[in-house]
Structure formats: structure tokens, C-alpha cells
From TrEMBL, chain A:
<dbReference type="InterPro" id="IPR036890">
    <property type="entry name" value="HATPase_C_sf"/>
</dbReference>
<protein>
    <recommendedName>
        <fullName>Histidine kinase/HSP90-like ATPase domain-containing protein</fullName>
    </recommendedName>
</protein>
<keyword id="KW-0902">Two-component regulatory system</keyword>
<feature type="transmembrane region" description="Helical">
    <location>
        <begin position="45"/>
        <end position="64"/>
    </location>
</feature>
<keyword id="KW-0418">Kinase</keyword>
<feature type="transmembrane region" description="Helical">
    <location>
        <begin position="126"/>
        <end position="149"/>
    </location>
</feature>
<dbReference type="GO" id="GO:0000160">
    <property type="term" value="P:phosphorelay signal transduction system"/>
</dbReference>
<dbReference type="InterPro" id="IPR003594">
    <property type="entry name" value="HATPase_dom"/>
</dbReference>
<keyword id="KW-1133">Transmembrane helix</keyword>
TrEMBL record, chain B:
<protein>
    <submittedName>
        <fullName>Uncharacterized protein</fullName>
    </submittedName>
</protein>
<feature type="transmembrane region" description="Helical">
    <location>
        <begin position="155"/>
        <end position="181"/>
    </location>
</feature>
<keyword id="KW-0812">Transmembrane</keyword>
<keyword id="KW-0472">Membrane</keyword>
<keyword id="KW-1133">Transmembrane helix</keyword>
<feature type="transmembrane region" description="Helical">
    <location>
        <begin position="12"/>
        <end position="39"/>
    </location>
</feature>
<feature type="transmembrane region" description="Helical">
    <location>
        <begin position="51"/>
        <end position="68"/>
    </location>
</feature>
<feature type="transmembrane region" description="Helical">
    <location>
        <begin position="75"/>
        <end position="97"/>
    </location>
</feature>
<feature type="transmembrane region" description="Helical">
    <location>
        <begin position="131"/>
        <end position="149"/>
    </location>
</feature>
Length: 387, 352
């Protein structure tokens, strides 16, 4: 099972297994406690604990990693032996039951059916339940009358079997009815992630085209007729080389999404030896006030510059988190870190270029850093500049 | 919607059995009660009261079926109280109908039908509430038996043994499944589509821009015509880029979109996935162009309506599971089924 792809069905299997064990376990415990109360023969009840334990052991066989038919057969035999032994003990007690369907025998049978829920998936619990009921009732029909306890139709145990049938059918039919929708849901979730990465890649591609091709075309239009200046020629050559290179629209590289200045700042902070991984709710950058966006962009760029120069790492993560009042951008690196209480003078950039800028627009900055662990800076800004 | 219930957490897998369990459970409970009443008719002191008890039980079953309908999702705490309250009333009336003559409580139908309803409720309400309901049910039916049975001790033992285990089991089902869902729920999809986006962008540029840039770079000079051409290409390219970036996920999914304030772009992943699932689960007339999406709102609140032309009127059972799914993601959601069109209306509040 460890190699299988996890689906909610595994969670349901866990839940049904727990329900079966709790139902069976508590039914056995309460049946034993009730027997002590109503039978009044404590010696018989003490002896009854043994067959009850045998039934529990039989139930536990169904949760062992055995082939299902083997487990069901073994559990049926062991649990039936336990139930039959319980009948014998009660028949020889001071207050023998009036029939094989008299209290406290039904809860023992219901416990067996509850354990049978762990027989497997789909119809397996119902098949196991029918097998357990048939074998147990046959044994009771043979043994009971011989001990002076006549066999009787056990309506509560039948109700227990019907409950197992209902649960099996309910989850089976309900699952079938939604099979199409569940497949669609899995595909939809994948499509959504894909669409999101596509949107980021599209933004990134648009930004690259804007900064390169559009700029070049505008420059050519401005030059008009004549020889190409060396700088313009170099720029056009660089653009053509870039467009021929692989992966320039990949959002794993510095993506440029909707938040122009912020994402441009991230792009500026990068170099061939330092990459930035951008993630989170990038769409939230769209609604920022111009002043806030400018301050945030400058602060992020300074944080990334600090990381590139001081942290000794090849990259950093920038995560955008939207909340009710604004957004928080987390700039994190797993580099050298530092002791915030003994800030190096080189880190004055943090207080001036970062804290001052963000606080000027009504935001706040929190720095978490430890030597050797890394640095995380949380930049929280409102949507619009505060007082 | 309360996300602490199985039906809300996984509406398509764990919410779907609820109507089946409610319908089947109501029928089963009534059959069991009728059979028990018939088999134990000698213990009936007031047959008329027993009939009233059976009628109340039937009403409880009908209430469970109606209230557990996906079209009425979510199943509220009030609905829980109403269904369980009716069942308990029926159980108490059954005990009263056997007043003084109930020699064997173990064959009463109360301890038989209460587990059925506890199973029905297990997926619809949070585990703690299911446990509380089960314990209250055990206490109330025990009290009734203790007051009205000639053998109160044996009667209470039989009731507790019949009702407490399923109450605990229903709680374990909900709690364990929810815990496993939380543990295993984070499924990462790491596929990226950047390569195809890049190919599309390059294909667009190869039509005009790249040939022009390459020609100018090769020649080392630029003509007046090329300069003019560069201006025209730049204008067209800029317009195309703006249109590209303005296109949202609904347009990407093929919808005609009328969303002047861009609310759809501020939906959560769960909301987008619920709508995508709904669209993909219906027998649409054209999956490439599913229909019209229109969004209107004020401040942070908006209403989105999808008009989805269908090839054939979908069956209610096919649409039913989608309603709780939508309601698990949106503040309100309704689906209307027509012969030619399915209309989806959802209300949402977007982040500030």
C-alpha cells in the first residue's frame, strides 16, 4: 500500500477499520459488564471473559495482513468458537439465558459482525457478516438445545447484519454515483495547478518579451534609417540568443507575474549564481497601491541583495501570502544567518532600506535569523499606504 | 460550511453515501421496528401508542431523507437534533406502549434503530457532536426503560450495550477518517507547462519580430521601412501581451467571461476546482466552449453565474453530489437543472 497513490479512500478504510474495532470492542466490554450485572453469577462472568477474549482475538485476525479469504475463514472459526463457548458458560450459569437470542448473547454476535467490517472492501464485510452469522447460528442451534437453551431467531443480531449491509451498500452505491465527478475532481485539481503555473509562465514570458523584444523594436523604430549603433546591435543579438535558449519562460526561474515593480525587483536581484524561487498568491500583488508596491519592491530587492551577498547561498525563496488587510511577503534563505542582537554594520541596509521603507507605508518588518540556520524576513504591507 | 464533517471534507466520496444511507436507513429502521413490534406484541400494553411510535419513527426517517438531501446541504446541527429527537421520541413512545409489560428489553426496537440513525449521521456531523448525540440517545432511552420496564437494571444494560457501541463507532469513523484525510490530503502536483508557454511565445515572435530583428542584426543597418515595421510590430505585440495577461482562468477553460471587476481571478484553488469539477461532470453540449460565466459584485462580495448548455438534461443523481461540493467551497451555491441548460450560481467573498 505504501507504493499506491494516496486517495481519500485510504482515509475511509482507516475510518471503517477504527469503527469496526471500536464497535466490536465496546460491545464485548459492555456485554461482559452487563452480564455481571444481570446474571449475578460472578464466577460464571469471570469464566465468560475467556470466550469474550477469544472473540476479540478472532476479530483482530481481520486486521492482520493475511490473505483476505484466509483471514475471514480463520476469524469466523475463532469467533464462532468464542461465541459457542460463551453460550456454554452462560447455559451453565446461575441464570441461564431463555434462548440463544437472549441477552447478553446478541451483543456478542453484533461485536463479531462489527469486527467483520474489516474483512475487506466493497461487499466483503457483508459476505463475512453472512458467513459469521450462518456459522455462529448453526453452532448455537446444535449446542444450545443440548444444554437446555433453545435456538431462537435473533432479531437484534439480524439488525446488526442489516446495519453492515446498509453501510456496505451506502458507501458502495454512493461511491458509484460520484465516480464521474470524483474523476473530474482529480483532473480539475491538476488542471488548476497547471493553469496556475501556465499563468505564471505566461507572465514571465510576457515580461521577458516586454524587456527584450519590445524594447529592441522600440529602439529600432527610434533609430530610423541608418547603421545600427553597436549597443543596439549587441542588445538585439542578446535578445535573439535569449529567445533561442531553453527555459526562459520557466517560472522556476525568476517569474514575472502580475505585480510589475515587485517582480522586476526580484529579477534585478538575480544573477547567474543566485536564483529566486517565487511562490504563493501572486495575484494578490495586483491590487497594491503604487506607493506600497514601490516600497515593497525596494525592500524585497534589498533583502535578496543581502541574501546574495551575505548568506552564501545560491538562491532564496520569496513567498507571497495574502490576508484580509494586505499581504505578507516572506523572503527566506537557508544561508549563514546572523545574530539579530549583534547586527553587523554591513546589515544597516536592513534597517534603512527595508524597515524604514516598509514602515513608511504603514507596514511592518519582522526578522528571524540564527547563525548557521538562515534568515527569514517577513514584510507585511497594507493594500494601500497607511498614515 | 463546517469542514469538520466527512460530507464537507470530501463531498464526492464521503458525502455521497449520506442520501443512500438515509433512505436505506429509514426503511430499515421502520422494517426492524415493525418486526420487533410484531414479534413482541404480547408485551404491548397500549397498541395504539405503539402505532403512534411507529408513525413518529417514520416521520424521523422522512426527515432524515429530506434533510440529508445533497440539494439541502449542509446538514445542520438543528437537522441532527431534529432527526435524533424524533427517533428518541419514537423510542420513548415504544417504551410507554409496553409500560409494565416489557419483560425483555433486549428485543425492543429502540436499541436496534438508534444505531441505524447514528450511522446515517456519522458522515454528516462532526464526530464530537455525533458522540454527544449518541450518549444523549443512550441516556434518554435508558431513562425511559428504567422508568417503564419491570426489570430496569437488565433493561438499562441492554439499551446501553445496544446504543453506546455504535455511538462510539460512528465517532471513531468520523474522527479517524478526518485525521487520515488531514494527514494525506496534501497532494502535490509539480508539473510545469512553461515549455509550451515558451513555445507559444516564440511561435508568435517568429511570425514577424524575430525575422525583423535577425535581418537588422545581420545587415548591421536598418531601413526606414524596417523602422516603421518595428513600430507596427511592437504595437501589435504589446496589445497581444496585454490581452494575454488579462485573460483569466475561466477564459482559459473556454468560457465567455463577463467579469469586469476580475472577481474570478481572486477565487481560491478550492473554489476554482469545485467549479471545474462541476463543469466536467455535466453532459455539456460543447466541452471546448462550456458556456457563459458572468460575475457581478460589490466590494468583496460577488455572485458568479455559469450558464452551461447541456446535450441532454442531466439526471438529478448526477448533479446532486455537485451541490455539496460547491457549498463546501462557496458561501452559497445553487444548481438549477433545465432541459437545455444547467445554471450554477455561487456567492463568494474575495480577499481584500
Amino acid at each position: 500500500m505504501s507504493d499506491a497513490v494516496w486517495t481519500p479512500r485510504f482515509a475511509l478504510s482507516d475510518g471503517l477499520r477504527a469503527a469496526g474495532l471500536w464497535y466490536g470492542g465496546t460491545a464485548l466490554a459492555l456485554a461482559l459488564a452487563s452480564a455481571a450485572l444481570v446474571v449475578g453469577d460472578l464466577r460464571a462472568v469471570a469464566v465468560l471473559a475467556v470466550p469474550v477474549a477469544v472473540i476479540a482475538a478472532g476479530g483482530l485476525l481481520l486486521v492482520l495482513p493475511l490473505p483476505r479469504p484466509v483471514a475471514v475463514a480463520a476469524a469466523t472459526v475463532v469467533m464462532t468458537a468464542g461465541a459457542t463457548a460463551a453460550l456454554v458458560v452462560l447455559a451453565r450459569s446461575a441464570a441461564p439465558p431463555a434462548s440463544t437470542a437472549a441477552f447478553p448473547l446478541p451483543p456478542l454476535k453484533i461485536a463479531m459482525l462489527a469486527f467483520g467490517v474489516n474483512a475487506g472492501r466493497r461487499r466483503a464485510p457483508l459476505i463475512a457478516g453472512v458467513a459469521i452469522t450462518a456459522v455462529t447460528e448453526t453452532a448455537a442451534g446444535l449446542v444450545g438445545p443440548a444444554l437446555g437453551v433453545p435456538w431462537a431467531f435473533d432479531l437484534p443480531a439480524t439488525a446488526g447484519l442489516a446495519l453492515v449491509a446498509l453501510a456496505s451498500s451506502g458507501f458502495l452505491v454512493g461511491g458509484r454515483r460520484t465516480a464521474v465527478a470524483r474523476r473530474a475532481s482529480r483532473t480539475a485539481a491538476e488542471q488548476d495547478v497547471l493553469a496556475r503555473t501556465r499563468a505564471i509562465a505566461r507572465s514571465r514570458a510576457a515580461a521577458v518579451v516586454h524587456d527584450t523584444v519590445l524594447g529592441d523594436l522600440a529602439a529600432l523604430a527610434a533609430i530610423g534609417a541608418g547603421p545600427l549603433p553597436p549597443a543596439a546591435a549587441a542588445r538585439v543579438r542578446s535578445t535573439l540568443d535569449l529567445l533561442a535558449s531553453p527555459g526562459w519562460a520557466d517560472p522556476a526561474a525568476p517569474p514575472d507575474a502580475v505585480g510589475g515593480p515587485v517582480l522586476a525587483a526580484i529579477a534585478r536581484a538575480e544573477d547567474p549564481d543566485f536564483s529566486v524561487r517565487l511562490d504563493g498568491e501572486l495575484a494578490a500583488l495586483r491590487g497594491l497601491d503604487g506607493a506600497v508596491e514601490g516600497a515593497l519592491a525596494a525592500a524585497i530587492e534589498q533583502c535578496l541583495t543581502n541574501a546574495r551577498i551575505h548568506a552564501g547561498v545560491e538562491g532564496a525563496d520569496v513567498t507571497v501570502l495574502a490576508d484580509r488587510d494586505g499581504l505578507t511577503v516572506m523572503v527566506a534563505d537557508a544561508g549563514a544567518g546572523f545574530d539579530p542582537d549583534a547586527v553587523d554594520p554591513d546589515r544597516l541596509g536592513l534597517s534603512t532600506a527595508v524597515v524604514a521603507r516598509v514602515e513608511a507605508v504603514g507596514g511592518s518588518v519582522r526578522v528571524f535569523a540564527r547563525p548557521g540556520v538562515g534568515t527569514t524576513v517577513l514584510l507585511a504591507v497594507p493594500k494601500a499606504a497607511g498614515p | 460550511m463546517n469542514r469538520d464533517t466527512l460530507a464537507a471534507r470530501e463531498p464526492l466520496l464521503l458525502g455521497a453515501p449520506a442520501p443512500v444511507l438515509a433512505g436505506g436507513g429509514a426503511a430499515l429502521a421502520l422494517v426492524l421496528a415493525a418486526a420487533a413490534a410484531l414479534l413482541g406484541r404480547r408485551e404491548l400494553a397500549a397498541p395504539g401508542l405503539e402505532i403512534v411510535a411507529l408513525v413518529v419513527l417514520a416521520v424521523a426517517g422522512v426527515a432524515a431523507v429530506l434533510l440529508a438531501s445533497p440539494f439541502r446541504a449542509p446538514f445542520t446541527a438543528g437537522a441532527h437534533a431534529a432527526v435524533l429527537g424524533l427517533v428518541l421520541l419514537a423510542v420513548v413512545l415504544d417504551a410507554a406502549a409496553q409500560d409494565g409489560r416489557n419483560a425483555v428489553v433486549a428485543d425492543d426496537w429502540g436499541p436496534m434503530v438508534l444505531p441505524v440513525f447514528l450511522l446515517v449521521l456519522a458522515t454528516l456531523r462532526p464526530p464530537r457532536e455525533v458522540l454527544l448525540g449518541g450518549v444523549l440517545a443512550a441516556a434518554a432511552s435508558s431513562a425511559a426503560v428504567a422508568a417503564l420496564s419491570p426489570e430496569p437494571l437488565r433493561g438499562v444494560a441492554a439499551v446501553l450495550t445496544g446504543v453506546l457501541p455504535p455511538a462510539i463507532a460512528a465517532t471513531a469513523l468520523g474522527a479517524t477518517t478526518l485525521r487520515a484525510l488531514r494527514r494525506g490530503g496534501a497532494r502535490a502536483v509539480t508539473r510545469s507547462d512553461a515549455a509550451s508557454v515558451q513555445e507559444e511565445a516564440v511561435a508568435r515572435l517568429e511570425a514577424e519580430a524575430i525575422p525583423l530583428l535577425a535581418a537588422v542584426e545581420d545587415a548591421g543597418t536598418i531601413t526606414a521601412a524596417q523602422a516603421e515595421r518595428a513600430r507596427a510590430i511592437a504595437a501589435g505585440l504589446r496589445a497581444a501581451l496585454v490581452a494575454d495577461l488579462a485573460r483569466g482562468w475561466l477564459a482559459d477553460a473556454g468560457f465567455r467571461v463577463d467579469d469586469p471587476d476580475g472577481y474570478a481571478e481572486r477565487m481560491t484553488a478550492a473554489q476554482r476546482t469545485a467549479l471545474r469539477t462541476t463543469v466536467a461532470s455535466l453532459p455539456l453540449a460543447d466541452f471546448e466552449r462550456p458556456g457563459l460565466a458572468s460575475v457581478r459584485g460589490q466590494d468583496r462580495d460577488a455572485v458568479l453565474e455559469l450558464a452551461l448548455p447541456v446535450a441532454a438534461r442531466p439526471r438529478r443523481t448526477r448533479v446532486a453530489p455537485l451541490v455539496p461540493l460547491l457549498r463546501s467551497a462557496f458561501a452559497r451555491a445553487d444548481v438549477r437543472i433545465g432541459d437545455e441548460q444547467v445554471s450554477v450560481r455561487v456567492e463568494l467573498t474575495v480577499p481584500r
